[in-house]
Amino acid sequence: MSAWLSPQHLAAAAFVLVVALTILGAVIAVAARKIFHNVLGLALALFGVSGLFVYLNSPFVALMEILIYVGAICIAICFAVMLSEPQYLPRPPRNPLKIQAALAGALAVFIFLGMLLKKTTWVPAPERSSDWSVITLGHYLLTTYSLIFELISLLLLVAMLGAMVTARGGRSRGALKR
Amino acid sequence: MLLFDQLQTYLYLALVLFAIGLYGVLARRNLIAVLISVELMLNAASINFMAFNRFLAPHPAVGQIFTLFIMAVAAAEAAIALSIIIAVYRKLQTVNIDQATELRG
Questions:
Q1: Which of A39, B22, B64, B69 is disulfide-compatible with A106, CB 3.0–4.6 A?
Q2: Can you tell me the ipTM of this complex?
Q3: In chain A, where the domains are located
Q4: What is the phi-psi region of residue A18: left when phi exceeds 0, alpha when psi lies from -120 to 50, beta otherwise?
Q5: Tell me: the pLDDT tens digits for A144-167?
Q6: B16 vs A49, A79, A106, CA distance in Å?
Q7: In the CATH hierarchy, which top-level class contains the domain A3-115+130-177?
Q8: Taking CB atoms and an 8 Å cutoff, what residues of chain A touch B56?
């Protein structure tokens, strides 16, 4: 009993749970018929991915994942779902040929990359720093990577303005009464 | 060797996530569902970056910074894509990619 409750066993069990959540969420996000269930599945998968980031030694990125993906992107997608097609309308049936073709394509890529992954041997860097602190991350963002940091800020600003301009089109009075 | 201490585990997991996302992009016809699938593929790429960062990279800050940049670009991409989807719905009254075919000759 005590052997099963050792920290390593608990960590392994939690890892299996996180992996199962991720894959289950991804399958729901892709396969569910209702678009709102897809969004919920995406949120589940993103929670799983953030758990993986915790296992990869960086809780900061895990928190950012929850904050940005679950907190911002999923909510934005929910708004888009509400602002677009009504959910009660009958949907056209799925085309089985297209489903099979997509399955074959995805499976081909999966097998190719899997074989590639099996063949490759990964060589770690000879000298590896063990400095995982968030402070170092902040220093890097404001010194070595400051140009990319500024570019990303500019990109977000432009994307925000572009989104407003694009979504505003056709919102004049009577445009929806066509 | 524990399962979560191996690079291969994370790479295979990212591969599974990527394949699921690719299937979604190819099979779904709702524009929003396609966007959701693209987000899954982006997350698979993030997992790869973080795994290489954890097991191979000389300095552990670099992969985390890459992942943060991927998230920022994904947020920008989602904002633009959703606004385009709303604009398309206003114009054509549909978000189905088979029906929204204005450019067809």
A1: B22
A2: 0.92
A3: 3-115+130-177
A4: alpha
A5: 999 999 999 999 999 999 999 988
A6: 13, 29, 10
A7: mainly alpha
A8: 122-125
